[in-house]
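Appendix B. One record, verbatim.
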Amino acid sequence: MKIFYFVLFSLLLYSGIANAQFAAQKDASYLATLKAVLDFKMSDEENIKDLNLLRENVNFNRKLARMMTKLSNNRSKDSTNTKIYKILKKAGKDIYNELN
């Protein structure tokens, strides 16, 4: 009987770990989808001219650099990082579902 409970507990523990890994992989697939679509759309002929003008805009680049300093991959519990991650994940999920 003890062996049965041990096996049952092990299966439940393993399924919890597997579910967490599956959720992490789904989040990663949403972010990868978002990046792939962004890369694709940034090379779209309609966007290239405007993007090149933005790349040459010193004020925009300075502002963008300041905005990026608010982000960090090290402080995942920071509220700004958490909000941005949720926005990116939702956008990636929406695009993933739309294209799938």
